[in-house]
Every structure is written in C-alpha cells, then in structure tokens.
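Incident log, structure service

09:12 report received: a user says their structure output differs between two submissions of the same chain.
09:20 pulled the input from the user's history:
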Amino acid sequence: MGELVIETSGLARSFGDVHAVRGVDLSVSSGEIYGFLGPNGAGKSTVVKMLITLLTPSAGSAIVLGHDIVDEAADIRLRIGVALQDASLDDKQSGREILQMQGALYGLTSAEIDKRIDELSSLVEFDAIDRWIGTYSGGMKRRLDLAASLIHNPDMLFLDEPTTGLDPTSRVQVWNEVRALNEQFGTTIFLTTQYLEEADELADRVGIINAGELVGEGSPEELKRSIGADVIQVSVDNNDAAVAALEALPVVDKVDRGPRALLVSVSDGAAAVAPVVVALDGAGLSVGELTLRTPTLDDVFLELTGDRIEVSA
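09:34 re-ran on a clean worker, output below:
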C-alpha cells in the first residue's frame, strides 16, 4: 500500500435535522481504487462533495493529498479530477471545445492542451470529437466527462456513480477505461457506486456506507469471506418451517431471508447440501430450487445492514 491520500476522522454533514453523513472514518492509499458502495441516499455523494471541497463538514475533519478540506481547499482543487454523477456538458459544444475549455481553466497552454487531448484519445472517440455533444450517446458523454476530469493530469480522480443510467455495453467500456487509468498511470481513484458488480469488478478495497455510516470495509474477497465460505440458496413452500429446520443443523452457520429464496450460509457447501436437503424433506417441505454459490457483496450488505441495495435506473 502507498502513502495515504485521503484520511477522514469523524466526518459528518447535516442538512437541518437530516444527518446525511454520521462520523465517517476512512483512509485511501495512493494508487488504489477505493469503491464506496451504498444505496441511493446512503451518503455517498455527500462524502464525495466534502472531499472535493464543494461542501464543508458539519463535524470531523478530512485530509486529501496532504491538505485540509476546509483550510486548504484551493490546493486540493488543483490536484484532483472530478466526474460527478450528472455530467455538465453543453450539447452545443464539441468534445474538443469542452476539453480545450477545461484545460484553459486549469491554466494549461494551447500546446499542453493539444498534447493532453492526444494522450486521452482512448477515452474520446476521435471521429466524434469535433461533433456537437448533443449527438453523443450516454456512454460517449460519460467518457468525455472522464477525459475532461483528467485534462490537467490530476494526482487523484473522484468518480461519483460514473455508470448510472448507462447500458451494459457502455458500462463495461467505462470500467475498462477506469481500470486502464489505474493500471497504466497509477491514478488513485475514489469511486462511488450503487452497483455491486461494479465494486466487485474494479475496487481494490470497498467501503460500505448505509444511512450515513461506514458499516464495513475491506477487499471484496475479504468482505465476502467474512460471512462464510458458501451460500446455499433454496426456495421452499414454507419459509418459517424451513428456517426452523435449517437453523437446527450443525453444518449451517445462519439463515437469511432473501427477496426470492432463503440464503443458507455454510462453511463447506459441498458437504452441507445433503444434510440441508434431508432436513427440508424431513420437515415435509417442498423444495422448488436449490443452488450452491459463493457469497456476493449483496450477501455482505444484507449481513451488515439487514437489507439489500435497491438499484435505481
């Protein structure tokens, strides 16, 4: 792990009586992709807006790239790139004009801007760079916004739900670009997302936020291993009777009620399937479906919060 580029202590933000962020402590190291995972309204975007100095905290503190977010906000803004959830792009400008304007705002010369546009060519489709943005697809707009956030070659990149609303193909394109930025250039990335597979696919470490509080943190694999080795997913005609029968089995660690099936956490799935089937049969239950799988981040979120992430379109 590299040096810490983000350190927060008791970071909080309230809007009147609404406590959006409730004392978050987190740290991010140089060169990593940190995934900030949570449902809509969990406080993800509020945390990001404090870290990028758009909001001041109600309590607590945060250091970004060695600078305090309140007292040294200008120093932070010069060294970070930001792509917020809603890209602010003018449909009557071309992609090139957006990048040139962004570069000029950061004080780059025309030659430096042209060089950076060339270096970012993998993000922007060159056959479209001189077309009006109003003709771009959603995926092209997100990639242009990403390029604009990188025009000044920042030390760190903040991405706030970069693929929300994109089709699966465009989402994978953005994933590939984010991964390449990190692997090829060592760019540190703070990524907020409501997509479990996005955090699992991209993040070196994941922080799980719910109702303004950090409820879990670790690599995706560490988080998944923390709730058991395997999950048996079973649908039956009587959940209450099934839970009672399964919780009595020594091979069962715990049973959760999922939206469509019971989720049975076990240490050794292969050895536990037969006892589970026998117990359900002995209880006179009809099994509609039984599958064995490894835990997912959805299972982790359920374990930590008692709920599941409802993804918005």
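09:41 both user submissions now match this output. Likely a transient worker issue. Closing.
09:42 reviewer note: The two ends are 35 Å apart (CA to CA). The chain has eleven helices and 14 strands.
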